[in-house]
């Protein structure tokens, strides 16, 4: 009897502060995609110089990631051969086969890539030629047909997806080649896994500045806020978005490690 008597008040004492703490804060409201999308102001449209018919030749010290012949430098996320289609010196997203990524991994780099939205594309907003380029496999630079196609500005072509819109809209129209030139600085991390220095990106589309040493806040989530996850060197990853419009092609991809 004596031990039971003692047990009850001790249990009460321990449980009271816990209960108070549990009810102190309301439960987090679940995030919806639209909560991190905004539509205004729309970046000014700038007409770039004529789309070059021929690919720009890579500099002598670049690692060639695609030279028009094969996808030997690329794999799917499991390390198996990339299943996208190679034809006429370009490769094209093969819907449903998943993202592809470089077999090599990188830290700081300068990257050149050319991409083309097919002529006669249909669909609107994000369902119109959606792909994406992930820096270190983590941070998406959006690829989308934003030629006379408005969407939320932090999800348009050249945005750091769901974070920072591009300075301007510098699209070539469907059927013409666009180029991205990207300068990327990888993050460094503190012992606790947060950024000591955040990742940064500079991006030119068709020779026009879209991102000027922009700080990347964390992962580029479709739903919710960016997350900071510790990581090391990573691949260049291209997105098989699976939107219903016609697939995007790529050519002339090279990288210079910095
Ligand atoms: Mg995308």
Describe this structure in words.
The protein has about 260 residues and is mainly β. The protein has one domain (about 1-255): Exo-inulinase, domain 1 (Jelly Rolls, Sandwich). The chain has one helix and 17 strands. The protein has one helix at about 1-20, and strands spanning about 45, 65, 75, 85, 90, 100, 110-115, 130-135, 140-145, 170, 175-185, 190, 195, 200-205, 210-215, 235-240, 250-255. The strands form four sheets. Strands 2, 4, 5, 7, 11, 14, 15 and 17 form an eight-stranded antiparallel beta sheet that branches. Strands 3-6-16-8-9 form a five-stranded antiparallel beta sheet, with no helix packed on it. Strands 1-10 form a two-stranded parallel sheet. A hairpin with a 2-residue loop joins strand 4 (about 85) and strand 5 (about 90). The protein is globular, with a radius of gyration of 23 Å. The chain starts with a helix and ends with a strand. The structure holds magnesium ion. Magnesium ion binds near residues 130, 131, 140, 239 and 241. The site of magnesium ion has 7 residues, from strand 8 and strand 9.
Features:
258 residues; mainly beta; Jelly Rolls; eight-stranded antiparallel β-sheet; five-stranded antiparallel β-sheet; 1 helix; 17 strands; 29% strand; globular; binds magnesium ion
In short:
This protein is mainly beta.
Helix and strand arrangement:
Blueprint: H1 2-22, E1 44-45, E2 63-66, E3 74-75, E4 85-87, E5 90-92, E6 100-102, E7 109-116, E8 131-135, E9 139-143, E10 168-169, E11 177-185, E12 188-189, E13 195-197, E14 200-205, E15 208-215, E16 237-238, E17 249-257
Parallel strand pairs: 1-10
Antiparallel strand pairs: 2-17, 3-6, 4-5, 5-17, 6-16, 7-11, 7-17, 8-9, 8-16, 11-14, 12-13, 14-15
Bound molecules: magnesium ion.
Residues 130-132, 140, 142, 239, 241 line the site of magnesium ion.
